[in-house]
Amino acid sequence: MMNDALTRLKDNLSYGETVVVATSGGPDSMALLYLVTTLKAKLNLNIVAAHVNHKMRPESDDEAIMVNNFCSQNGISCEIMTIDHYNDDNFHNDARLKRYDFFAKCVKKCQAKHLLTAHHGDDLMETIIMRLVRGASFKGYAGFEEKIIKNDYTILRPLITYTKDEILTFVKQKKIPYAVDKSNDKDVYTRNRIRKYVLPSLKSEDQNVHQKFYKFSKTIELYSRYIDKESLKILNKIYQNNILDIPAFQKLDEIFQGRIVNLILEQIYQDDLMLITDVHTDSLIKMLMSEKPNQVLNLPNHKKAVKAYNHFTIENEKLKQAYQFEFTDFQVLPNKKILERQNESNDNSNYTCRLNSQELALPLYIRTKKPGDKMAIKGLKGTKKIKDIFIDEKIPTEERALWPILTDSTDQILWLPGLKKSKFDKQKDENYDIIVKYH
Fold it and tell me: Which helix (H) or strand (E) holds 303?
């Protein structure tokens, strides 16, 4: 029994290596820890059990003690982390992030080559069904992979072809200690409902249905790898420095458009990819194909997608607040630019402005745009809205929020640095006593 799991372990583990086993204390992880222990002497393994005490149930401390005792009895190192508080409103998401961060630290600390997790066939079925119901990327419909190669180590799931019942039978036969998480019986969680009501129905049709899901998962992975290989070639050409070339994207075949978007999301979200649904990917593709030049879409984990004319990027959401400063001689601006008084200048571009203080109400001010802002453009009759100047100059929406505007104390707009000068700007041969440079 469990011969497939033992074969996977033997095929992947090397003689004398250190291996970290994610051990919750449940029957799945205890079965896995037991199996690795049976290979300890044969492969001269250094085994480290990594346990997280979530402190969410009265039994949590007892489970940590049980795992530690099993390790002591079997000559296994045990690393335990206790979580005292959670930062995220989504407990399961925050707990998973903390858990895998702890596992990664254990792997690094022990210089391990493998992290073993006890995900099994029922887990795979539940994950696939959940993603089919809520929507996911094509690759996401595969559930989770049997093996994931990280930068410095590999995650391996040797129990992926076994059902929960088979694992429970195994631990009882071998008299392996384990704990039961009663919260798994609560119908409030989607996964629990699928586990309690959907899986039994599927198994009644075919007791080996988990093998069909496993084959489905492997097929998706196979096709996904090919699409990924071709998509990566395209991605490297049209996505550089975290900026996507929208016109090039729009020329792609539909299947590559979807995969390109998902590859970008995978790079950004990594282990948080489960937060992304097909609603997000569909919305992003719709944004990219839209004729609207500037758009913003909020995404999970305080990120946002920004479309600015021919460019698209996903960035961390930042609070961009309006500002106003009195300007004297020198000012570093929130957009990292500088406004500076000059004694003299030969520059006639929009980056230098000459003013006559006798025509203005001092002091001068630097501020961000306000609704309805207008400026009397140099050389033109009448006024023009600042908003329209931004549009004409194709300034991305995100940059407009912090773009400086120079005014006098009556709030009369004198200059839109780098873009347009007002009627108050002077030529070199006219009277002026103020020179300001934007750089």
Answer: strand 303-308
